[in-house]
Input
Amino acid sequence: MKILVAFDGSDAAKLALKFSLRFKEITDKMFVIYVTPAVMGSGPTFDSYVPSTVYIKQDEAADKILTTAKELLADAQVDAEMIKQDATGDQIAKIIVRTAEEKSADLIISGTRKLSGLSKVILGSVSSEIIKISRIPVLICPPPE
Output
C-alpha cells in the first residue's frame, strides 16, 4: 500500500504522521508532502513585486518542516519520500490530491485543526477540501485535545 501524508509541521500534522505509522506493516511506500502556500494572489488586475528573499525564506521553512517529518519517521523503518510543492495559484488541497494520484497512493492521511467561524473562512480547511475532491480514500486525524 502507498500512503500520502499531508504535513505542514503543525501539531495536527505531527499526530497524523505518527498515526500513519500504524499502517507501516502494510505500507510499501510513504509520501510526505508539504505544499508551500502562495505568497500572494495573482490575476489580471493584481500587479506586485515579491523580493526573492521572501521565496528563499519560504523554501528554507519548507525544508525545515520536511526535516521535522524525517525526524519523526527516523526510527520507523518505513520507505518514505519527502515531497515539496508550491501552491502557485492552485489550492493546497488540489496539489495534495493531484500528487497522491500521480504517486498512485492508496490512501491520503491528513490532520485537521478543526477550524470554525472566521478562522475557517479566512484560512480555509485543507482537510475538508481534500475530502471533497479526492477519489482516493482519505483519513482525517482529529487534533490533540
In short: The chain has one domain: 2-141. The beta strands are 2-6, 29-36, 80-86, 107-111, 138-141. Residues 118-123 have pLDDT under 50 and may be disordered. Residues 42 and 48 are 8 Å apart (CA to CA).
